[in-house]
Amino acid sequence: MMLDGKIAVITGAGPGLGWTLAVLMAREGADVAVAARSADTLEAIAGAVRAEGREALPVPTDVSDPDQVRRLADTVVERFGRVDVLVNAAFPGSHRRNVLDMDDAYLEQWRKAVEIAAYGTLLACRHFAPHMVAAGAGSIVNLTSMSSRAGYAGRSDYAAGKAAVHLLSHCLADELGPSGVRVNCVAPGWIASDVLDDWMRARAEAEHTTFEAIRARDTAAMALRRIATEEDVARAVVFLASDQAAATTGATLDVNGGQLFT
């Protein structure tokens, strides 16, 4: 198993990718701590991890709060004695608004979104990385996005937050590498989901065409002619987290079906 005996932490563990990643890590041999704001979601994910025969630790956490993130790190290390893998995936939903259409309330929402992505990732790394440095080994994998390299109208909060995480990861890779700690990114493109389907249906209605036509047009722009799944993305994370990527740091692994080459 790729993560046999590892202790993994996932921040921003939601009902979609976070759930899939936690279960896959458990199947690959890891005990998993999951952190997010929703206690109910965390308990459900923890139950799925335990169903795979591994230990789970749900810790409700606001990753933009320094005290809560410090408590998260202390709780994980107290329970498991160490941390081998940290995956940062926290980011709030975006409502797709152009900059010139933002009122004061949305500008504050924009600030908070970027803070959760960039500052939240920084805080998690700040409080977990010292335990990895002390052990002389560890892997941090940050979830960025295709949008961290190519911005789109209405998604400036998402693009700015993910781009910040992208370059933060480069800085951390340089800082932590001498201590044996690796820092990498996985950058998904579109991920197959009900949310993506709803967006395609909305576009189809706006363009007076069909969902099938929009989906066919979108996938035709991808080299693999298919949209990545949550499991596709989770497997990329597991690879970078594992010892199979022992000589890889400061890298970004794109999982977008060939929608964007970098």
TrEMBL record:
<dbReference type="InterPro" id="IPR036291">
    <property type="entry name" value="NAD(P)-bd_dom_sf"/>
</dbReference>
<dbReference type="InterPro" id="IPR002347">
    <property type="entry name" value="SDR_fam"/>
</dbReference>
<protein>
    <submittedName>
        <fullName>SDR family oxidoreductase</fullName>
    </submittedName>
</protein>
<comment type="similarity">
    <text>Belongs to the short-chain dehydrogenases/reductases (SDR) family.</text>
</comment>
<dbReference type="InterPro" id="IPR020904">
    <property type="entry name" value="Sc_DH/Rdtase_CS"/>
</dbReference>
<keyword id="KW-0560">Oxidoreductase</keyword>
<dbReference type="Pfam" id="PF13561">
    <property type="entry name" value="adh_short_C2"/>
</dbReference>
